[in-house]
Amino acid sequence: MRPPLCIAQFDIDPWRAKRQPCRTEAHAHNTGSGCTAASYAESHARQRAVPDIREIPLEFQGKIIILTGAAGGIGAALAHEFAQRGARLALCDLNAPALNDLCQELGALQMICDVTVESNIQAVVTEVEATLGPVDIFFSNAGFSTGEPDHAASAPDRVWQAAWDLHVMAHV
Prior knowledge:
By secondary structure, the protein is α/β, with parallel strands linked by helices. It has 5 helices and 6 strands. The strands form 2 sheets. A 4-stranded parallel beta sheet has the order 5-4-3-6, sandwiched between helices. The chain has a two-stranded antiparallel sheet with strand order 1-2. The longest helix has 14 residues. About 8% of the residues have low confidence.
């Protein structure tokens, strides 16, 4: 059995841990100012703000998940993880051969989809809801990178536009 996945929710209040001065805020820390080594350590000790942490368990058993960019890399790893945790998957990608192999392996619904086209996304959601039921999670994972390895900004304008369309506008 796989260990449960959790989201850690942090509540950090930076003002909670304030330093307390010995006598005044600004003074030299020596015996002439009234601070001894012991009183300095006690009154000026840095207090670390310890966040309140609450774990929220994530359950995927029976959840219907649409996962974009699923045919390789992180997307394929996510698909395997979700499948092992009992999710019902609709996997989307433009790489049809790799997507077909993955969907057959996991028993997932295969969806060829260009996520930069809004009507494609709407069609995917409509088909998934008709085939599997209401969508619980839409995991937008599709992405790409290009350019010279030592200078990513070297990409031509058409690549920047494609990156903008996929990484930003597809989510709007």
